Amino acid sequence: MSAIQNLTTFDPFADTGDNDTTKTTAYIHIRIQQRNGRKTLTTVQGLPDEIDQKKLLKAFKKEFACNGTLVHDEELGDVIQLQGDQRVKVGTFLVEEGIARKDQVKIHGF
Questions:
Q1: pTM here?
Q2: Residues 1-53: tens digit of each pLDDT
Q3: In whole angstroms, what is the distance from residue 42 CA to residue 92 CA?
Q4: Is residue 50 part of a domain?
Q5: Which of 18, 83, 6, 97 is nearest to 52 (CA)?
Q6: CATH label of the domain that carries residue 99
Q7: Strand (E) or helix (H) holding 55
């Protein structure tokens, strides 16, 4: 007779002590919206509150040679809108300036 060794007491739902909730990752979402024809709009949302979004918008406009605006949404908070497809440029700008890590930036669209 062989003894069954598989029935040891292991509770998969037991508390393991890994309650580190300080690692919440807030993503920065960069999306694109089609306007009409070839015209597009890039939106950036989810930026941390410590960042002055007006200064960031001014830097985007100067760096990418495009126009943009800051829109306040009830659900999403402040959203930066830029003319044209600036998704990759905005993502690399945020990473190079140290505003966000590469794994915090989510690029959506097409």
A1: 0.74
A2: 566 666 666 666 666 665 554 445 689 999 999 999 999 999 999 998 899 99
A3: 14
A4: yes
A5: 97
A6: 3.30.780.10
A7: helix 53-64
| Both tokens assigned to 65 | 């040679």
User: Is 14 inside any structural domain?
Assistant: no
Rounded alpha-carbon distances, angstroms, from residue 57 to 16, 33, 65, 75: 44, 18, 12, 20
pLDDT in tens, 13-27: 666 665 554 445 689
Q: How many domains does the chain have?
A: 1
Do the domain assignments include residue 1?
no
15 in a structural domain: no
Which residue from 91, 87, 88 is spatially nearest to 102, judged by alpha carbons? 91
N residues, the chain: 110
Q: In this structure, how many other beta carbons lie within 10 angstroms of the beta carbon of residue 85?
A: 17
Range of the domain at 71: 28-108
